[in-house]
Amino acid sequence: MKSKKVKESVTIMTQIVLPNDTNPLGNLFGGQLLAWMDLASSVASKRHSEGIVVTASVNNVSFTTPIALGSVVTLEAKITRAFNTSMEVFVDVWVEDRSGKNRTKVNTAIYIFAAVDENGKKRQVPELIPETDEEKVRFEGAMRRREMSLILAGKLKPKQATQLRALFE
Ligand SMILES: CC(C)(COP(=O)(O)OP(=O)(O)OC[C@H]1O[C@@H](n2cnc3c(N)ncnc32)[C@H](O)[C@@H]1OP(=O)(O)O)[C@@H](O)C(=O)NCCC(=O)NCCS
User: Domains of the chain (ranges plus CATH)?
Assistant: First the structure.
């Protein structure tokens, strides 16, 4: 299986916040942003693995900045590391205000997708080759985040963790 670069699967999605997407304060409903992030990251992981993917885990989502009605929201999803049958994806989110002059980064979410075949059986994914400094930093950290995510999901015992064991001793 041929290794792939981050740029081969990067996925950019742009949305405008419409009235139906907002909460009673006129800001983007959090669940809508989560759905957009899930879509963008599923396309990136589908492109990387060249097949069907399912969301295995959503980590590190926090809503620090309200996103107003009429804002333009741009999501950029990039694979940060591929494991055996799973991939970590970072989704960075930017917002442009109504004037289009001010663009602010408002969110970064971390998703894990698992690659499956037509019968839902897990399948191997290609390795990821990080190229830029940011890609290399995210690639290195992915192993620690994966252990944390698996421990929280009850799929890995803290004693079995190689990178994070010290945190639990
Ligand atoms: C995700 C799913 C395929 C995992 O299947 P499983 O039989 O439990 O298999 P595993 O535990 O081996 O997990 C498969 C891969 O996902 C990773 N994974 C699973 N849960 C994870 C979690 N919470 N955090 C990080 N990685 C996780 C595993 O580490 C493994 O990766 P690897 O092969 O690269 O080492 C399965 O639970 C599933 O189909 N879930 C439903 C998915 C879905 O419907 N999503 C949409 C929800 S709305």
Answer: 4-129 (3.10.129.10)
